[in-house]
Amino acid sequence: MQLVLEKRAERSRTIALVSPLIAIGLTLITMSILFAVLGKNPIMALGVYFIAPLTDGYSLQEIAVKATPLVMIAIGLSLCYLANAWNIGAEGQFLMGAVAGSWIAVNTQGTDAGHWVLPAMLVAGAVAGALYALIPALCRVKFGASEILTSLMLVYVADLVLDYLVRGPWRDPAGFNFPTTAEFDPVATVPVLIEGGRLHLGSIIALVVVAGAFVLLDRTIKGFEIRVVGVAPRAARFGGFNANQLVLLTFAVSGALAGLAGIIEVAGPIGHLQPGISPGYGFTAIIVAFLGRLNPVGILIAGLFLALTFIGGEQAQITMKIPLDVTKVFQGILLFYVLACDSLILYRFKLVFTSRQVQSGAG
Amino acid sequence: MMKRLLGAAAALVLAGSIAGAAHAADKLKVGFIYLGPIGDLGWTYQHELGRQALVKELGDKIETTYLENVPEGPDSERAIEQLVRAGNKLIFTTSFGYMDPTLKVAKKYPNVHFEHATGYKRDKNMSTYSGRWYQGRYIQGQIAAKMSKAGVLGYIGSFPIPEVVSGINATMLGAQSINPNIKVKIIWVNTWFDPGKEADAAKALLDQGADIIMQHTDSPAAMQVAAERGKLAFGQDSEMIKFGPKAQLTSILDTWGPYYIARVKAELDGTWKSEDTWGGLDSKMFEMAPYTNMPDDVKKLAEETQAAITSGKLHPFKCPIVAQDGKEVECKGGDHLADGQILGMNFYVKGVDDKLPGK
After folding, report:
1. Are B123 and B140 contained in the same domain?
2. Same-domain status, B152 and B46
3. Interface contact B97-A176, CB threshold 8 A
4. I need a surface site. Which of A315, A328, B156, B175 has the fewest CB within 10 A?
5. Residue extents of the structural domains in chain A
6. What is the percent of chain A where pLDDT is above 90?
7. B174 and B306 within one domain
8. Best mutation site among B3, B5, B6, B13 for testing chain A: the one with the most A CBs within 10 Å?
9. How far is it, in rounded angstroms, from Cα A333 to Cα A330?
10. Domain boundary residue, one of B131, B148, B163
11. What pLDDT, on the 0 to 100 scale, is given for residue A355?
């Protein structure tokens, strides 16, 4: 008797729905065991991770703040990935967006420029992100260069451009030579939604982006094209869809969203341009995109969930003295189970009663 | 069923936090924000040792909490605020990049006291503290000049901020006091902690003819490279002799413990005030690791210089100071540069054969 994985005749819709729940359940069980081994009360620990952050307004705001750039970038990436275009360089587009928007903020500093500054910054951020993303897209379309490599390499270029600017021309003259621009003027700052909190307009923009992506994919021909090109390139060609054009389009959109997220982050929670504005949002967003199954609503949930584990992880460090590494193990285990459970959509377990010898004898 | 479980869990958490609050009423809560992992064997590790010294000394009166690996971006503001919300009344934020986030949270919570390491922005409830590491660098410069056969020093720079630039200048001034023709080669790695990059920089410097490695980065990687190649090196932040028993000449050891203990005592007594502390060798804000792998006369010289700096007889930035372009620097501190000039140092002294990045 043995247990084998057998390919299903078609995708199981039930499993597709419950597999994330199974994954979360398995994660909770595994983590409980881990907490018990560490000598912590598992129920209390899980409470600190998952429930405590949801019980007060402050933590809820922080979850939204943390999830905002992740969701925005991941939505853009999902369009690329659905169209079989592999943008790995969202981090660079995020940085370029931040740089372009900051250019306006830095140059209007101390002037009596009016309320057009912030909208102009947001537009500049999105345009710069889109243009930066078009470089690897054009390289793929024109020369067949792997966009995975080129988009990734451009991350480092963007990083160094930002570095140069804040150490050189844009450095705060009153900042003792430290690498940062001066604090942005109020007209160049993303407004907070609740006085005294950190929740800002960017979170609303992220929700609009989610809704927009949902409509695009579910209700428009363009969305259909994106899906078909990804799933069945040959069929798409017969259908007269231009795959190259879609590569350019999805890269531009995803770059624009990453750039927008970048300038919102800089003009919002940070308030000035400095090196290290992103703790790897562009890369974490790849995880968010896949965790959310490349579906806009799924991405929103995945982004919030990942943010929850960050906030909960900090609270666990503070209230229960659980090391940060446990939070990382936690995130890793979760991703592992999600991917493992996903294989059940296409495969199923089956008990095989015939012995191997009989099989080989027959064959 | 699920609902009931959640309810039970929430109740437990609540009970836990209430118990915690009651417990905390009699103990002062002190929080720390760390840049790296506590096991980085450099900067963060030394702060962690300081915290442990604090617990050893005042453990019955205080409860400490730390958050490690906190990135210097917007996440740090949240991390600091989380500590405030958990009831910490004195919070040490231990990296330069936490300056603005610390200030923002400090303005929001006027009844909580903050201590920011190596920054320059202060407030009624926010102090700053740092070390005069340039003093140690001057001693290292003298040792390096004595020990180098090639007359070329290799220097791994992190970021061209004043603290690092003044370290390079102090090193050169110390080295020039022994050998006026000493040369220094500098590689900027643009990171505080990246063992791979630090090791590559050390190799490149040795390949370019340097025979002594000095660093302003946090990992022991450069020390290991020097040890492998049979060259000499200086540690940084912490004792790195076990990574180069035959290579380490000395190391600047950040000893935060005494400062942390003093500040927490002040907080307990109700005498805490916002201050700017810039401690040198005399205040034990840092120490020099034992002088090793050098002949006795060099060791004696180093000890004499250390004693002279500690007593205030010798100032590494004694005037006249001549800048790289040959012009004399205005002397604003009497017979030596003023603290403000060192804290904002944005020029190389004469003899440094490098262009300051961003200038």
Report:
1. no
2. no
3. no
4. A328
5. 69-306
6. 53
7. yes
8. B13
9. 5
10. B131
11. 57
The two most distant CA atoms of chain A are separated, in Å, by 88
Answer whether residue B242 is part of any domain. yes
Residue B21 belongs to some domain of the structure: no
What pLDDT sits at residue B63? Answer: 94
Rounded to an integer, what distance in angstroms lies between the CA atom of residue B248 and that of residue B231? 9
Residue A273 C-alpha, separation from nearest chain B C-alpha, in angstroms: 10
pLDDT 10s digits, B3-21? 444 444 444 444 444 444 4
**What is the distance in angstroms between the Cα of B175 and the nearest Cα belonging to chain A?**
25
CB contact under 8 A, B9 and A168: no
Distance from CA of B100 to the nearest CA of A (A): 9
Mean pLDDT of B118-129: 93
Are B92 and B122 within one domain? yes
C-alpha distance from B86 to closest chain A C-alpha (Å): 7
A47–B12 CB contact, under 8 Å? yes
Q: Average pLDDT, stretch B331-352?
A: 91
| Residue B2: inside a domain | no
Do B9 and A44 make contact, defined as CB atoms within 8 angstroms? yes
My answer on whether B221 and B87 are in the same domain is no
Find out whether A330 and A31 touch, Cβ atoms under 8 Å: yes
Contact: B74, A319; criterion CB under 8 Å = no
Separation between Cα atoms, residue A127 and residue A104, nearest integer Å: 13
Asked whether the predicted pLDDT for residue B133 surpasses 90, the reply is yes
CA dihedral B165, B168, B169, B170 (to 10 degrees): 120
Identify all chain A residues contacting B20, using CB atoms and an 8 Å cutoff.
319
According to DSSP H, which parts of A277-348 are helical? Answer: 281-291, 296-320, 324-346
Q: Which chain B positions have a beta carbon within 8 Å of A163's beta carbon?
A: 190
pLDDT of B25 reads 55
Q: Same domain for B125 and B180? A: no
* Residues of chain A contacting residue B108, judged by C-beta atoms under 8 Å apart: 196
Query: CB neighbours of A163 closer than 8 A, spacing ≥ 6?
Result: A179, A275, B190
Residue of A nearest to B84 (CA): A318
Residue of A46, A268, A279 lying closest to B75 (CB–CB): A279
Q: Is A4 helix (H, G, I), strand (E, B) or coil?
A: strand
Instruction: Give a yes or no: residue B332 inside a domain.
Output: no
Residue after which a domain boundary falls, among B99, B131, B163? B131
Q: Inter-chain contact B190–A319, Cβ cutoff 8 Å?
A: no
The total number of structural domains in chain B stands at 2
Question: What does the pLDDT average to over B297-304?
Answer: 96
Indicate whether B75 and B178 sit together in one domain. no
Are the beta carbons of B358 and A314 separated by less than 8 Å? no
Question: b/e for B260-278, b at 16 or more Cβ within 10 A?
Answer: bbebbbbbeeeebeeeebe
C-alpha torsion angle, residues A108, A111, A117, A123 (rounded to 10): -20
Q: Are B86 and A171 within 8 A, CB to CB?
A: no
- Distance between B359 CA and the closest CA of chain A, angstroms: 7
Q: For residue range B135-194, what is the model confidence (pLDDT) as tens digits?
A: 999 999 999 999 999 999 999 998 888 899 999 999 999 999 999 999 999 999 988 888
Domain that holds residue B91: 27-131
Nearest neighbour of A167 by CB, restricted to B8, B12, B358: B358
The pLDDT, as a whole number, for residue A360 is 47
Locate the chain A residue with the closest alpha carbon to B85: A58
Same domain, B309 and B178: yes
Residue B119 belongs to a domain with what CATH number? 3.40.50.2300
- Sequence-separated (6 or more) residues with CB below 8 Å from residue A8: A345, A346, A347, A348
Cβ distance B161 to A47 less than 8 Å, yes or no, reads no
Tell me the nearest-neighbour CA distance from B67 into chain A, angstroms.
Answer: 7
Taking only Cα atoms into account, the Rg of chain A, rounded to an integer number of angstroms, comes to 23
Q: B85 and A58 in contact by Cβ < 8 A?
A: yes
Low-confidence stretches of chain A (pLDDT beneath 50): 358-363
